[in-house]
Design a protein that fits this description.
eight-stranded mixed beta sheet; six-stranded mixed beta sheet; 25 strands
């Protein structure tokens, strides 16, 4: 049973207050068709809004099934509209961009309904619209739209149907069909129909409430209605799940896919700039580090006599005595300092005058005074094989002074065609040795040394490298310079710590080596170089991010504007959702979900485009390097870290959510009556 006791309803205007209703008192049973009749401005729609809990700002009370609408919270009124009220409007208030099925499903989205599809199809079957379930609303006739509206009103099995001028937009024949359908529904439910048509009232009404100037003029009972007992049903709270809000938002954005894509691309431009800044910084740093590590690994320490190293580096006066920095005894002494020292790489002082130069698979090319196309220049001479930690791609370790291992970069450079590098194993390699000043010209002092390639390491190196066991390397120097190792002097010395040591353990070892003796200074060979490189790369990255962030800020404003426009365009949808029981929170979540989806789209687009650009950059750089005859293997100067990519996507989502907060709150706070009127 419904009991209405409205003492007054006043609209506060700027110039004066308008009393819309006064002293409205009546009681109605749980079924029957009640027509509220009166001229325009008599308060019919206001009365319907109060009974439907769209308007709670009135003096008095409305009691439905012993529950007072004035004594419940706002959230409970939302649940009341979902469970107890079904609205049918003159203007239909269907979502034209969606299908008939989607419109009915939206009403059920606020309830945890099982077998939802069967429920929807049964509702459409009852109004003879089941064969049009997948048809868009905007292609339906007025009568068909009103049938769909009736099905939506019945979705949650309400106790009361409120129909505001349900035939006002229909021709007489279709209007008669709709009233006939409502009359059938009134046998089991209370149907309140607002109308100004006395003909429809005369034919269909069981009870007529006549309004005039906001007051009841008279109540006429035309037919005796057999009251029914309403079975108590389980009332559930009105809740739209986040999943449903997300799904509905996707459908809404799809209707404006061009604008959505343009907005996503707009934001992705800034993300692309930031992603490329990180990728270039990361890729370049990794490339430089890998090349430095191949020459000066993290466990590689430079050794200097005490007093030769100051804050400005090594000071060398290029006299003969100054070049003799280390003796062989020094090498033995250093090797005994700490068990973590595995090996060393000494460069004899004699190499200031005589050294290795051209390397080739052809003896004639190595002998030639000109630098041949398929030759490479050996800058550093043989390096200790022990530093590779058996990191071989092909072959085996060298076993005597005539056997060597070459780096992958060197192997690729030596091949003149597309042959596999495994064809190099067991081939002879010719290395020119002679005075440094004779490089590139004939000199009778030049000699060609022959070595056998027994292995290829998987390491790419900045230059071209070959490797020998350190003992064989010293034996080679003894033969070349005709001097015993005990009498050798060395201009440069690198030592290698245990390769399994972590960076912090290496730093600790360096500190201990420096503290336990006063003859030599140990310095991380790669550490200072990489610190400088990383500082430079970080600076460049931060500058690029700063510029790119400007476009991100602009994109955030753009998203906020787009969501605000969406709110304005969908005011009627907001009104409909509130009328069928959606909470303010649900409305807010819908538009925040749209913001999140745009942010997600922008992030994914930005990351994917950035990855594509990175591939183009890497391919272009590799091509340019090879065109200059340089062989660095497979290099990548732009590498987007997956964690950075994920962080950028999450950042996009968060920023988009922030951009959507204000328009989403505006939508949530919108008065449902005003929203419906703005249709």
């Amino acid at each position: 049973m419904i009991k209405v006791n409205i003492k007054s309803k006043i609209y506060k205007m700027k110039s004066r207050d308008v009393k819309a209703l006064a002293n409205i008192n009546f009681e109605l049973e749980n079924n029957g068709l009640v027509c509220i009749l009166g001229p325009s401005g008599s308060g019919k729609t206001t009365l319907m809004n109060i009974i439907g809990a769209l308007d709670s700002d009135f003096s008095g009370d409305v009691i439905i099934n012993d529950k007072s609408l004035k004594k419940v919270r706002s959230e409970d009124l939302d649940s009341y509209r979902k469970n107890a009220i079904g609205f049918i409007f003159q203007q239909f208030y269907l979502l034209n961009q969606f299908s008939i099925y989607d419109n009915i499903e939206l009403a059920l989205a606020l309830s945890n309904v099982k077998n939802k599809k069967e429920r929807i199809m049964k509702l459409l079957e009852d109004v003879e619209m089941d064969s049009f379930a997948n048809r868009k609303v905007n292609v339906l006739s007025g009568g068909q739209k009103q049938r769909v509206a009736i099905a939506r009103a019945l979705a949650n099995n309400p106790d009361i149907i409120l129909a505001d001028e349900p035939t006002g937009s229909l021709d007489s024949r279709m209007g008669h069909e709709i009233m006939t359908k409502l009359k059938d529904l009134s046998k089991e439910k209370l149907v309140l129909v607002i109308t100004h048509s006395e003909e429809l009232v005369e034919e269909f009404a069981d009870t007529v409430i006549c309004l005039e100037d906001g007051k009841i003029k008279e109540i006429v009972k035309k037919n005796d209605v057999k009251a029914i007992e309403v079975e108590a049903k389980e009332e559930t709270r009105s809740v739209m799940s986040y999943c449903k809000a997300f799904t509905h938002s996707i459908k809404s954005l799809w209707q404006k896919k061009g604008r959505t894509l343009a907005t996503g691309i707009g934001m992705s431009i800034g993300i692309i700039g930031i992603a490329l800044a990180f990728a270039l910084s990361n890729g370049s740093s990794q490339l430089i580090k890998s090349q430095v590590d191949s020459i000066l690994p993290a466990n590689n320490l430079s050794v200097y006599p005490k007093g030769e190293l100051d804050n400005n580096g090594v000071s060398i006066n290029f006299s003969t005595s100054d070049l003799d920095m280390f003796s062989y005894e020094d090498l033995e002494y250093i090797m005994k300092l700490d068990e973590r020292i595995e090996t060393y790489w000494p460069v004899p002082t004699n190499t200031a005058e005589e050294f290795f130069s051209e390397v080739s698979l052809s003896k004639n090319d190595a002998t030639s005074s000109t630098f041949e196309e398929n030759s490479v220049y050996l800058m550093n001479g043989p390096e200790p094989y022990e530093t590779l930690n058996n990191n071989l791609t092909l072959g085996r370790a060298p076993e005597n002074k005539n056997e060597i291992v070459i780096s992958l970069t060197t192997a690729e450079a030596l091949l003149s065609d597309d042959k596999n590098i495994d064809s190099l194993v067991d081939k002879d390699l010719y290395i020119k040795f002679g005075p440094n000043m004779s490089v590139g010209r004939d000199d009778e002092r030049n000699q060609v040394l022959t070595f056998k390639i027994v292995g290829i390491t998987s390491i790419n190196t900045m230059g071209y490298s070959v490797y020998q066991n350190v003992d064989d390397l010293l034996s080679l120097y003894e033969n070349l310079f005709s001097i015993k190792r005990n009498d050798m002097k060395f201009i440069q010395l690198l030592v290698y710590l245990d390769s399994d040591l972590r960076n912090d353990e290496i730093k600790a070892a360096v500190e201990e080596l420096n503290n336990q003796q006063d003859k030599f200074t140990f310095v991380g060979a790669a550490e200072s170089m990489m610190d400088g490189v990383q500082t430079f790369m970080d600076t460049v990255r931060n500058v690029l991010i700063g510029f790119s962030s400007i476009s991100v800020v602009v994109a955030i404003l753009m998203i906020g504007i787009v969501i605000y426009i969406s709110v304005i365009e969908r005011i009627d949808e907001i009104g409909i959702l509130r009328a069928i029981g959606a909470r303010k929170k649900d409305i807010r979540n819908l538009f925040l979900s749209e913001s999140m989806i745009i942010g997600l789209l922008a992030g994914i687009l930005g990351v994917l485009i950035s990855m594509g650009i990175c591939s183009i950059i890497n391919a272009t750089v590799a091509f340019l390097i090879r065109s200059y005859g340089m062989q660095l293997g497979n290099i990548s100067v732009a590498v987007l870290d997956p964690m950075v990519a994920l962080a950028l996507i999450l950042t996009c989502i968060i920023l988009a959510l922030i951009a959507g907060v204000i328009p989403s709150l505006k939508a949530a706070k919108m008065d449902p009556i005003m929203a419906l009127r703005k249709k």
